[in-house]
Write a structure and sequence with these properties.
Elements lengths: L3 E2 L18 E2 L3 H9 L3 H9 L4 H9 L2 H15 L4 E11 L17 H4 L9 H13 L4 E6 L9 H13 L3 E5 L5 H10 L3 E3 L6 H7 L5 H14 L2 E3 L2 E3 L5 H13 L6 E6 L7 H9 L4 H14 L4 E4 L8 H9 L4 E3 L12 H11 L2 E2 L9 E5 L6 E5 L3
Parallel strand pairs: 3-4, 3-11, 3-12, 4-5, 5-6, 6-7, 8-9, 9-10, 10-11
Antiparallel strand pairs: 1-2, 13-14
Helix pairs in contact: 1-4, 3-11, 4-13, 6-7, 7-8, 8-10, 11-13, 13-14
Bound molecules: S-adenosylmethionine (SAM), 6-(5-methyl-2-OXO-imidazolidin-4-yl)-hexanoic acid and iron/sulfur cluster (SF4).
Length: about 400
């Protein structure tokens, strides 16, 4: 059924007898667009509940671009407020000398002789708070802290727990990306009130071994499961343009759908080719993937994970306004804001402010979740204790 894809699978919970079919036909997309807009809330819930098969994901990738964008934007509007974007600011809290050998990453100790990246130890809590305050002042709703670790050590845990509490106290949502987490570490971060944990699958299971050899795909999935089970929101995405095939991009989307619940947040990074990294050097020599394939990946992710935030992540610095506008049309509703990502530059804040004005996008407000434990002061005795809040 080339070019014809029914995005509303029949569902046993269908209570909508006058249900409008949201089939989009290439030949008559505008008619179907109006039909889709008429789709009611029950139908919307069905789409959220349906999981696309690998074949359906592949068919979405194959759609004519305008049909794909139309379908993605329509689904986006059924699940989110149109023209509203969530913005996050990143800070590297420990940079470089990472024991992992990710082939794209400037921070891997395995590539330090060629990238010449200046490594930095853990930065002080005060400096992190100051950066978080600046992020809040610019209108960012989430502060994401990244560390170049294989996993946090026991002595790192009090430090990261303190960071979560301090940043939350500013009224910001918190996100961390610290490498692998065991169940106990995930529980500690959940108790501190961490809102999101980022841990990317990066690519398909079969391409993964071309990207990193020091850890396995299953280890990545284990950490994601530990985060999910702890109650922290899952942020898990990919990198497009590392030399992987379309099949790998399809498989990556399919991996998200195999999870018990799709990640709440999905960063779709476009590779920033970094000189001195094996993958960066290869891409710089052989040429980059066309940006439209990244936009297609965003659109398919939006359709398959309709309730997730889809984030424009690394790679925006090199994109034109029009390319970014297409990415928002494809259903992206989040991006990294601020002049720096972790070690590389980002699209400038002033440029982003102008672009948001020109596109008519507005910033979503922060809604941090309460920490599970809160300090309570007994007015009579002056004694302070920790009270565990119900979820
Ligand atoms: N060390 C932690 C980990 O790997 O989970 C967290 C930090 S790591 C830098 C976070 C993510 O940034 C990676 O999983 C990857 O998807 C993305 N990333 C890193 N370098 C990148 C690059 N050059 N281009 C695009 N994305 C990149
Ligand atoms: C994610 O998926 N992308 C962000 C965030 N999660 C931590 C990191 C992008 C890093 C880009 C390369 C760099 O600045 O070193
Ligand atoms: Fe280390 Fe993360 Fe970079 Fe891999 S992506 S080398 S784990 S910092």
């Amino acid at each position: 059924m080339a070019g014809l894809l029914n995005i509303s699978e029949p569902n046993a919970n269908n209570h909508n007898h006058n249900h409008t079919d949201t089939t989009l036909n290439n030949k008559n997309a505008s008619h179907d667009f109006l039909a889709t807009l008429a789709t009611d809330a029950t139908n919307t819930k069905q789409q959220a509940a349906s999981k696309h098969s690998r074949e359906q994901i592949a068919q979405l990738f194959d759609l004519p671009l305008m049909d794909l964008l139309l379908q993605a934007q329509t689904i986006h509007r059924q699940h989110f407020t149109a023209n509203e974007v969530q913005i996050s600011t990143l800070l590297s809290i420990k940079t470089g000398n990472c024991p992992e050998d990710c082939g794209y990453c400037s921070q891997s100790g395995h590539h330090r002789d060629t990238t010449k990246l200046q490594a930095e130890k853990r930065i002080e809590v005060d400096k992190v708070i100051a950066a978080a305050k600046r992020a809040k002042a610019t209108g960012s709703s989430r502060f994401c802290m990244g560390a170049a670790w294989k996993h946090p050590s026991a002595k790192d845990m009090p430090y990261v727990v303190e960071l979560v509490k301090e940043v939350k106290a500013l009224g910001l949502e918190t996100c961390m990306t610290l490498g692998m987490l065991d169940t106990d570490q995930a529980a500690q971060l959940a108790d501190a009130g961490l809102d999101y944990y980022n841990h990317n699958l990066d690519t398909s299971r079969s391409y993964y071994e071309q990207v990193v050899s020091t850890r396995s795909y299953d280890e990545r999935l284990d950490t994601i499961a530990n985060v999910r089970n702890s109650g922290i929101n899952v942020c898990s995405g990919n990198i497009v343009g590392m030399g992987e095939s379309r099949d790998d991009r399809i498989d990556w989307v399919h991996e998200l759908l195999k999870m018990p619940k799709a990640p709440e947040s999905i960063p779709v990074n476009l590779l920033v080719p970094i000189q001195g990294t094996p993958i960066g050097d290869k891409v710089l020599a052989e040429g980059q993937l066309p940006v439209l394939e990244w936009i297609r990946t965003i659109a398919v992710t939006r359709i398959c994970c309709p309730s997730s935030y889809v984030r424009l992540s690394a790679g925006r610095e090199s994109l034109s306004d029009s390319e970014q506008a297409l990415a928002f049309m494809a259903g992206a509703n989040s991006f990294f804001y601020g002049d720096k990502l972790l070690t590389t530059g980002n699209a400038s804040q002033s440029g982003d402010d102008r672009l948001m004005r020109e596109l008519g996008l507005t910033k979503q407000f922060a809604a941090p979740r309460a920490p599970k434990q809160v300090p309570v002061l007994d007015a009579m005795s002056g004694h302070q204790s920790q009270v565990v809040l119900a979820e």
